[in-house]
């Protein structure tokens, strides 16, 4: 099937909506890349990187804390690689992929598939600060926790991806950030790294938690990722619109190759619904599935998003630091809604 490019009207609506979000105080600025698997790219920008950086305009090389996009940019593809290498099985309890532990471990019985699809029933609240001073390893503390509900239903839970990050490090015998860095080098995603990163003009600051205190800038916005040194399965990655666009192209090209490409096989398997989120939306393996399964996407709490439409061969990446002004979800909802509508159109 030929690639379906974005139209001039599509781009105009997205640009106008991004401008409106900036004007309404939803984010200091942002970058959108609309592209196709054959390399067509349109870059839309608005606003500034942050008020303290004056008139600096965000661009495709501006570094953003992508927050929960970590799940699909780092953890999800690494899990696919480990699966292809025979290091894990989707229906395997995660405790089997972690250092040995004695006794009952209710949360450790969750399977890799359940953790990826947010159907494990683990505790939803992720408060790693409650484990300060504990001598027991983190993986054991997490695995020993009781389930909050029976497995099977969908509930978005970060701690499952924390366990998956720990499992990936254990089965490889290497730190998660080293595994990710090697993969990103292969993908030629040169600006994508686990934080912290430098506090400079190329990096978009995020939230000021306490009036008068320094703003979070170059360090992960997510508290739990911060407690893990910036390296976690659920959050902690910094990237650029350029790298996210390149990642989108890689995924769409792999999807087209299908069974002839391990990443394509993994993406296709991940687009099979695992649980219903709400009417019209399902959860695949990591990805949210919409438009009758024709679109896969994921958001980051800081104000980032990545959308894929594999059948028509196009993607849409959004980078903002909307959390600069506080919780970002409602502030950029109009932009995300338009992005989903736009990429769903054929």
TrEMBL record:
<dbReference type="InterPro" id="IPR001466">
    <property type="entry name" value="Beta-lactam-related"/>
</dbReference>
<feature type="domain" description="Beta-lactamase-related">
    <location>
        <begin position="19"/>
        <end position="340"/>
    </location>
</feature>
<dbReference type="Pfam" id="PF00144">
    <property type="entry name" value="Beta-lactamase"/>
</dbReference>
<dbReference type="InterPro" id="IPR050789">
    <property type="entry name" value="Diverse_Enzym_Activities"/>
</dbReference>
<protein>
    <recommendedName>
        <fullName>Beta-lactamase-related domain-containing protein</fullName>
    </recommendedName>
</protein>
<dbReference type="InterPro" id="IPR012338">
    <property type="entry name" value="Beta-lactam/transpept-like"/>
</dbReference>
<keyword id="KW-0378">Hydrolase</keyword>
